[in-house]
């Protein structure tokens, strides 16, 4: 009797033609991973201001699959594995986000993708990684019901400094693989040690970016931005928060950011409003309210009314029991609540109706080139209507030139921040605004 998967593979060449046209996602065999065009593509991404993430989809039980499927079935599985992941990745990621997908140095596949330089885009990577894996697993099961691959996933950002591009790609791949496998005596333990050391020694520093009142041109507030130890592999916030998340230390790290912020407010005597980023994981933690109260007790001169808790990665709040309860308690304490990245997806609009935030921050994707795009300006007007209905102030993020700023001014946007006004600096330091 023929096995079920055989009929599905009689036309494997046709599958390849359908799923991998020449202009789509490219595969590179192992020997080409550190040769051009990958190194050139990574270098170009850095030059354009992007980070590059290395994401590993590792098959934990790969060596058991030949016994499950037979030799020929295993060969078909390996061939279809690449095809299915190519199809799913092409559907889930923008063409400009993808650098390569290959099978280098692991029992599975490794994806290199561009990431916008955002201090808290770690959850977005997590979500995309998990969604790609979930969809790929379903397609593989539909095509080969006998196959039961067990995937492990991990990711790391390519370090821009200290190494050549080739060495940086290899090191990021090794770290991502270690995160996926969590092997004893592996790089995973090294990363865990580094983050544990940073947390125990509170070895981070903060910069701040001013938030400008568009009507007056004056600094209205500051957003706190986190950096890891200077000169280390974890100085970049993307590296730091990605490793903290994967090693289970995100909550501790974000509490240190809050503690350091209070210390800086006390030291500088800053009287303006302060925005601090928190992930929903931290905001919904059962100990969060208690831990904040303890820190505030040490700084009785600092009122919660001066602090805005900015919810990053807002589309991961669903199903979190304590999240909405904690938000209510925090508001009673005097904190204000902001939602970040509004306009980046439906989930942000859904979050507005659930949370009714005091402040809505409009994502850079809406603001970029808004002076040249009437549709984006219409989107901005729609968000302003939503904000008024919710009783929220609006902050436009990522303003980079005078033309973008002028669109915000004529639409009476409340507040704005971006390199056009000032780059991140130290809290309440005298800044010459553009």
Question: What is the compact description of this entry?
Answer:
The protein is an alpha/beta fold.
Topology, please?
Elements: H1 4-8, H2 12-19, E1 27-28, H3 38-47, E2 51-59, H4 65-92, E3 98-102, E4 108-115, H5 122-143, E5 151-157, H6 165-181, H7 187-201, E6 205-213, E7 219-227, H8 237-246, H9 250-268, E8 273-278, H10 280-283, H11 288-297, E9 307-311, H12 321-333, E10 336-342, H13 346-355, E11 359-362, H14 364-367, H15 374-390, E12 393-396, H16 402-410, E13 415-416
Parallel strand pairs: 1-3, 7-8, 8-9, 9-10, 10-11, 11-12, 12-13
Antiparallel strand pairs: 2-4, 2-5, 3-4, 6-7, 6-13
Structural class: alpha/beta
What is the CATH fold-level name of the largest domain?
A: TIM Barrel
| Number of strand segments | 13
Work out the helix count. Answer: 16
Largest sheet: 8 strands, mixed, barrel
Distance between the termini: 76 Å
Q: Report strand %.
A: 15-25%
What proportion of the residues is helical, as a percent range?
A: 40-55%
| H/E element order | HHEHEHEEHEHHEEHHEHHEHEHEHHEHE
Q: In CATH, what is the homologous superfamily of the largest domain?
A: EAL domain
Average predicted local confidence, pLDDT:
82
Radius of gyration: 24 Å
The gross shape turns out to be globular
Report the top-level CATH class of the largest domain.
Alpha Beta
Strand order in space, largest sheet: 6-7-8-9-10-11-12-13
| CATH architectural arrangement of the largest domain | Alpha-Beta Barrel
The parts where pLDDT drops under 50 for at least 5 residues are: 1-34
Number of folding domains? 2
